[in-house]
Every structure is written in C-alpha cells, then in structure tokens.
Amino acid sequence: MNLFYLRYFVTLAHVQHYTKAAEQLCITQPSLSHAITQMEKELGLPLFEKNGRNTTLTRYGEEFLACAEHTLSALDAGIESLQRSARGEGMIRLGLLRTLGIEFIPRLAAGFLKENPDLDVQFTFHTGVTQTLLDGLAARKFDLVFCSQPPAQLKFTAVRVQKQHLVLIVPRDHPLALRNTIDLAETAPYPQVFFEKSSGIRSVVDKMFAQIGIIPQIAYETEEDQVIAGLVAQGFGAAVVPYMDLLLKLDLKILQIRSPSYTRDLFMVNDDRIFMPPCVRRFRQFVLDGKTLQWSETI
Q1: pLDDT of 30-85, one tens digit each?
Q2: Which helix (H) or strand (E) holds 144?
C-alpha cells in the first residue's frame, strides 16, 4: 500500500470533493483519481461513492478510514519523535555511584539544562556500584555511567572527570580518634569495614594496603560508602572511604592519610560500539568541556 495514497485517501474522506482535495494535497485531480482507483483495485472493494456533487465513503471506506488514520497517526508520531531526537532532544540515562549523586551529577545535569533551555531533555538517574553500572552499560540500560575505571577487556571508552580524596574514618571513641592525620600502617591492629569486592574502590584500597605490606583486619564488608560510614559511626570499625560531605554529619572522626597518599579517579564511561543519541553526545561534550573544573572535593 502506497503511503502517499493513504494520505490522499484520508484527505479526500474528510474533504469529500475531488477538486478541493487535490488542491489541498497540491496534486492534480487526475493524479488523485488514479491513486484512489489503484487503492480500490488493491483492496478489491469501493472506498467512495458519488452523493450529488460530493464524494462520500462507502461502508468499506468508513472501516478503512479508521485504520488509515490510526496508521498515519502512529507513523507521524514516530517521525516526530525521531526528529526531536535528531535535534538533540530526548532522554539521557545516567548510571552513577551514589556519592556522585549528592552534588556532582545533579550539578552537571542542572548546568546542562540551563545551557540548553530550548531543548526538551529529560534525565534518568540510577545508582549502583561500579560493576553493576558497567553491566548496565553493556546491557544498554544506560547511555553514560560515572564510576571507577572499567577493566580494559570491556573495551569501553573512559574519560577521567573527577578525583576523590581518600580518608580514614573512625568512631569518636576509637584509639585513633585523637589524631588528625595518620599513616595507613597504623590501622593494622584495628578491625575495619571494607567495600565488597564488586565495588570499584575495593581494588584501590587493596592496593594501598599492599603498597605498605599490611593485611588489614576486615571485620565487615558492604558495597555502599554511606553504609560504611554509618557502620563506622556506630563503632563497627575503621574504614578508608572517599571524602564526602555526609561524613561531617555523622558521629565519627575524619583523618587525612599521610601515607600512602592516594586519590580515587572517577570516569565517565560509554560504549563507542553503540550509537550515541545526539542529546547524549551533547551532554557528554558538555561534561568534557567542563571537566577541568570538576576536580575533586577537598577536605
């Protein structure tokens, strides 16, 4: 079925006059007549009949009109949706570490929307640990993820966009709570709350202890840094965590780590093997253009 013929049919059905419908369609009347004749031959039934000086639908034409209008409406909606996407509008699906959802990512999203007030852009925000986020990116659930550096074998594109300072946190009544700075080796005698191995920062903390030849006493493991902070505040042990403003609100002590000095790099990650929608590409460039201003939070 010729798509143009469908539009001709719907127009004629509403105008009910060949000459007027042809003028509205910017075609000749013979062209319109030919199109309708061809449709009726293909369908095997008459769609129109004469009614005085007008042309009206047969009962078969009325039945087909509902189908044609529904088809054209769905098609037009699809075309408009794709055209909006081509203009840089649409949905941007972000995956992020929970700590980045406190300030960093909301600030980026708000800044992007402020810079592009004429674009109809929406965001979705999903939090998780690095491995979960990378799995979601591979499964095409996210357009971009902000997390620790992905393994090279995944062949993702990763750009460093932020650094986080790592600190030691201890309960207020901990033997180390009187200190303001510390060498990580001094934590060896004390139980610690660690990130689970699925967390991207776990390898960073493991490397820090390996660097000084210490095997930490791991008492508890969990995947979220906020949960670790809460456990430390309640006396479950000490912990190495990224610095975040939330720590200032909890009943614990924050110590700067003198040695080994370490910062955690955070990356914006995407899969170049998958087509990147224009709105996502524009947001990614927005982040890249401002990334030198996004360097990490300080204590």
Answers
A1: 999 999 999 999 999 999 999 888 899 999 999 999 999 999 999 988 888 888 77
A2: strand 144-147
173 — phi, psi (to 5°)? Answer: -100, 15
Helices (H), 48-129: 59-86, 104-115
CB-based contact 95:136 (threshold 8 Å): yes
| Domains, the chain, with CATH or none | 3-86 (1.10.10.10), 90-160+266-293 (3.40.190.10), 162-264 (3.40.190.290)
Of 98, 93, 104, 144, which is closest to residue 268 (Cα–Cα)?
Answer: 144
Residues 6+ apart with CB under 8 A from 267: 146, 147, 148, 149, 150, 158, 159, 160, 161
Q: Which residue has 């369908």 as its token pair?
A: 43
Sequence-distant (6+) residues with CB within 8 A of 24 are: 11, 15
